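As the next step, I needed to go through one protein, both as residues and as discrete backbone shape codes, included below for the reader:
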Amino acid sequence: MTEDSSSPYLAALKVEHRELAQLVRTVEGAFSAAADQGWKGERTLQVVERLAAVRDFMRDHFAREEEGGYLDEAISHAPRLGPEAARLERQHPQLLGKINDAYVEALKQHSSPREGDPFAWPTIQETTHAVLKELLTHEAGENQLLMQAFNADPRLTE
């Protein structure tokens, strides 16, 4: 398969990966600002809002992939990648489970001036950072699979 015929998939992937990376940066920036301000409710609430945006994005992104998106297109061009694509797709529920509605709601409670615990936030930050790193690693795996399927130049998704 030539790069020309794969370019719509790779271009769409590039856009989505950039958007995800930007969302992750906003979460990390919100954590930094909250830490600098002593984990005050208004700053931690910004963390929660940014993390909810990541959750919503990933929910939509995974749904598109599971409904015949990028991975299916890759498999149609390179059936040998089917097992790896299936492994990556099986990770979706696990990843979404780590940044789910209950997690976001629990963080909202920690943002409450009355119910919040500022001492919990450094641990929350560490845990969330690990989840976001796992998410980005997963997306890099999907990216690699597409590069293999379409024999594309890796720079096309940078």
